[in-house]
Amino acid sequence: MNATRLQLPLPVLLALLAAIGPLSIDMYLPAMSAMAGSLASDIHHIELSVSTFLLGFALGQITGGPLSDRLGRRPVIFIGLGLFGLASLALTYVSSLDGLLFLRGLQAIGGGLAVVNSTAIVRDHFEGADIARVLSMVAMIMMAAPLLAPMLGSLVLTFSGWRDIFGILSGYAFLLIGILVWQLPESHPPHRRIKRSPWAGYATVLRHRTARRYILMLASAYSGMFVFITASPYLYLEHFGQSEQVFPWLFGANVIVIMLMNRLNIYLLKFWSPRRLLTLGIVMQFSSALALLALALSPFFVLPVVLPLLMIYVGSLGLITANTMGSVMQHFREVAGSATALMGVIQFSGGALAGLLWGHFHDHTPIPMMEVSLLTATLALIFLLMARRADSHEVSDSPAIETDTATETATATD
């Protein structure tokens, strides 16, 4: 029986797990206006629940990473999914803004506990450039979640109320528990688990100068996407006057570009190193952010011009994310959970802060959104230059990294 049992590919299983994050954020974006009316609040205060979720997600990851290094991946995944499912169910009964923010925080902690293990599991199984390749596959499959989530949210609003969106998220979590119990084996066996303090893994990662700078670069680049997610309801629904039915298509356009970039990344990794590809992604993000701010300060800030630039700005993460994670994770095996958690907590904390920064300066014009987007892209470019400089001065412990660096040096004059 075991020989004929259906076994889903590992990238599919990890994509189903990682989809918890984008589903939780993107599915309820079209419902924000309805939620504001139902909870006697305004849409700006409802938007704070995005930052609340990002902070809770970061807290879940910073706890779940070292715990999975010590206890194994599966127990932490199932605890996190259980908490996420129960909090999502409770959100179907919420009656106040404070209750919404509190339960979104609990929901996010559970999601962070579970999702932090997806990248760690890839590191458990793969080495070198294969890490970036598999992570790109996971991301490409997972991108179906942010592509479909706003559409599904709009569909729920058409036939029911916004509370049912959280009911669907609860059902997804418990269904996923059943699938993973059946399909996902433990990838971090007892002989690899750390016996010292579960927080010691963070010190190991933070002491690595090159990895530290790449993590800050990734966090800065990712923060720009979270600014877009937080501000997109205002930009599309209010500033450009688009309907709730059109919003998912505008939002989904950016997701499609990320999917295409991930597919392109898988192909280009046959010829280029992960570091060279993430450099291309950072340059694309910075250039599009600069153009968007220039447009926002001009009379030419119109949807047909802005949308393609936003697609490039957000889509560049298809070249940045997997290659950065691959470059960082190949340094760490026994503490892969801690390394993943540190990347996640800095990404989501930075995203939450960037979203709050936009909210603070929001003046009902697109200018603050574009200013914060350019700020995060500029920081990403600075940290990239610092990381590349550290690369050139640091002798790596990994032969794969030395070869990769040598390849980049040899091709730099191409």
Automatic annotation (TrEMBL):
Cited CDD domains: MFS_MdfA_MDR_like
Superkingdom of origin: Bacteria
Domain named Major facilitator superfamily (MFS) profile: residues: 10-391
InterPro entries named among the record's database cross-references: Efflux_drug-R_Bcr/CmlA, MFS, MFS_dom, MFS_trans_sf, Sugar_transporter_CS
Topology of the protein relative to the lipid bilayer: Multi-pass membrane protein
Any matching Pfam family: MFS_1
TM region positions: 46-64, 76-95, 101-122, 134-159, 165-185, 214-234, 246-265, 277-295, 301-320, 341-361, 367-387
Swiss-Prot/TrEMBL keywords: Cell inner membrane, Cell membrane, Membrane, Transmembrane, Transmembrane helix, Transport
Cellular compartments annotated: Cell inner membrane; Cell membrane
First-listed, main subcellular location of the protein, grouped into a coarse class: membrane
Sequence similarity: Belongs to the major facilitator superfamily. Bcr/CmlA family.
Annotated protein name in UniProt: Bcr/CflA family efflux transporter
Source species of the chain: Thalassolituus maritimus
